[in-house]
Specification:
heterodimer, A: about 280 residues, mainly alpha, 11 helices, about 0% strand, globular, B: about 290 residues, alpha/beta, six-stranded mixed sheet, four-stranded antiparallel sheet, 10 helices, 14 strands, about 30% strand
Chain lengths: ~280, ~290
């Protein structure tokens, strides 16, 4: 189930992406909090609580009164496209490379000519991807912590409150990477894997939105794994936040691990086409 | 001689299409076994079945007694494989590629890979992405020939190589045999197969249509003659070793399957105007099965 050579190679493969995301997620919280601080809290509250219709609260997932606080505003950073898209791109990129990416490039051929179990190749890559996701989320949280502690909102909010939100990002990354690796395990072309995943992601966004906005179609929210990605709800009462996180990450990491497991079994059993 | 590789009725079907159909082969230990056939004949399918990349629809394959499906790990532990189009990690340089593959195989001696790379005149400091196709082929050969496994499978190993490197690769293949290793050599270059292999199998449309010992083939000759009189019947004592393969009004082509000596006496009695004796050669055997398609 483990291969050190594959572990090292996977880190080499993901090095550029990891470094890029480290740079992005180190700088982003600083920029986000600095930009947010340019709008004074009373003005922000005025816009949020008076100008925006109350119905729109359903989209945010938390009452506007909670959003209109320092903690609420920092929490919005975790649902900003810079974080969500980067986490998704990470998952799709790494997951799709697991099998179909390497089959498409033709590099899987010589690796599997060695006495290495396919499951070991798959699992070791999954572990390297998960370890890197954990590292990236740690970087994100440390960046949020330093941006709060050393930034314009120093002393106004406790940085530790964002730990569950960062852990929710980790859950999202494991989930997307797992589903991507599962699809990749049965495919032979990375472009097709990525296409399938993009379609699935768009479907998940739409299912979540419809579930939120339409009373009769509330159940569609359960068709979306994104229903378990709610970092903005994880910055309130600490006990409640950790309990909610456990629920969310159980879904996200559970789906990711099941997808990885199914992918490993399918990859071990399938025929591998010759490189084109 | 004990057999290292055995396949029995090995078949791979994709729907109604048979990529390999009832292939039964035995490759003895310590010999170089050639696989010949046009593109799509089923050679690579056979090799991929042996390595466990694909599972057979029916039949079995084994290496050193290990089943290629059930004991794939044991099979691959005993096999070094060069794919037809070897693709390596583009971001790594040659040294790192050799390091990586050496670390994948316990007991693999990294210095052997360096030696092979030097013999192939390969600059391993260059990144794979910046290597020419031939250099990448040399790097893949250094990876594969460094593994001191009992079985080496080479799928078109000399494709894209310059003549010097080509000769060096054939030399390395002969050295592998001298060291007691078995080599399965798939190629389209008949002269290379003829120069290196002990036995060949000719594959056509998924079936092994002919097996040929090269040692026997070297003793076979083709006699082309122009006659100025009628051809007398082949004496009964020679009937088993000579056959007429083509006959015109005043020409005849015969093939002698064994030593020429007993035949020469009868040939001297024929009304010959011209005569040419040449080795049959693998090309003629190959053409028998592939020109006829």
């Amino acid at each position: 189930m483990w291969n050190t050579a594959i572990w090292k190679k996977t880190w080499g493969d993901q090095r550029v992406l990891v470094l890029s995301l480290v740079a992005l997620w180190t700088g982003f919280p600083w920029l986000y909090i600095w930009l947010s601080a340019q709008i004074p809290m009373p003005a922000f509250q005025d816009v949020l609580l008076r100008a925006i219709p109350k119905d729109w609260q359903r989209l945010s997932g938390v009452p506007f009164t909670e959003v209109a606080t320092h903690a609420g505003r920092v929490a919005l950073a975790f649902v900003d496209p810079v974080v969500v898209l980067a986490a998704t791109v990470w998952g799709i990129t790494r997951g799709s490379d697991a099998v179909s990416g390497q089959l498409e490039r033709g590099t899987m051929e010589m690796v599997l000519a060695a006495p290495v179990r396919r499951v070991a190749v798959f699992v070791t890559q999954a572990l390297a991807t998960t370890a890197a996701a954990a590292l990236l989320c740690t970087v994100l949280w440390v960046a949020v912590w330093t941006a709060i502690t050393l930034g314009p909102w120093a002393g106004k909010v406790d940085p530790l409150r964002f730990l569950p939100a960062a852990a929710n990002v980790f859950g999202l990354m494991v989930c997307v990477a797992g589903i991507s690796a599962g699809v990749s395990a049965v495919d032979s072309y990375r472009w097709r894997t990525v296409g399938i995943l993009c379609g699935f992601y768009v479907f998940s966004i739409l299912a979540k939105l419809v579930g939120r906005l339409s009373q009769p179609l509330w159940w569609t929210g359960y068709l979306s794994f994104l229903n378990a990605y709610e970092p903005q709800r994880l910055v309130g009462d600490p006990a409640e936040s950790w309990r909610l996180l456990a629920e969310y990450d159980a879904v996200l990491i559970g789906v990711g691990v099941i997808a990885y497991a199914v992918g490993a079994v399918l990859f071990a059993r399938r025929d591998l086409p010759a490189p084109l | 001689m004990p057999m290292l590789v055995r396949t029995e009725n090995l078949t791979k079907r994709y729907g109604t299409f048979a990529a390999l159909d009832g292939c039964s082969l035995s490759v003895p230990e310590g010999e170089i076994f050639g696989l010949l056939g046009p593109n799509g004949a089923g050679k690579t399918t056979l090799l991929r079945l042996i390595l466990g990349y694909i599972t057979p629809t029916s039949g079995t394959a084994s290496v050193a007694g290990f089943d290629c499906v059930r004991d794939s790990l044991e099979v691959r532990a005993r096999t070094a494989y060069l794919p037809g189009e070897a693709r390596l990690f583009r971001r790594m340089n040659g040294h790192r590629v050799l390091d990586f593959f050496a670390s994948l195989r316990p007991g693999c001696r990294r210095e052997v890979a360096d030696t092979v790379a030097r013999r192939l005149d390969l600059d391993c400091s260059r990144q794979v992405a910046r290597m020419s196709t031939g250099m990448r082929q040399k790097l893949a050969l250094a990876v594969v020939l460094a593994m001191e496994t009992p079985l080496v499978i080479l799928d078109e190993p000399t494709a894209n190589l310059d003549p010097t490197a080509r000769a060096e690769v054939l030399e390395l293949v002969l050295e592998a045999r001298a060291a007691g290793r078995t080599v399965i050599f798939s190629s389209h270059v008949l002269s290379e197969v003829e120069d290196t292999c002990d036995n060949v199998a000719i594959v056509r449309a998924g079936r092994v249509v002919h097996e040929q010992s090269l040692e026997h083939l070297r003793r076979c000759h083709r006699i082309r003659a122009k006659l100025n009189g009628p051809l007398s019947p082949i004496p009964a004592s020679l009937a088993a070793s000579v056959a007429i393969v083509e006959q015109g009004d005043d020409t005849v082509v015969m093939e002698a399957g064994d030593s020429l000596a007993p035949l020469l006496g009868w040939l001297s009695t024929l009304p010959l105007e011209e005569m040419r004796i040449e080795p049959v050669g693998l090309a003629a055997v190959y053409d028998r099965f592939h020109r006829a398609i």
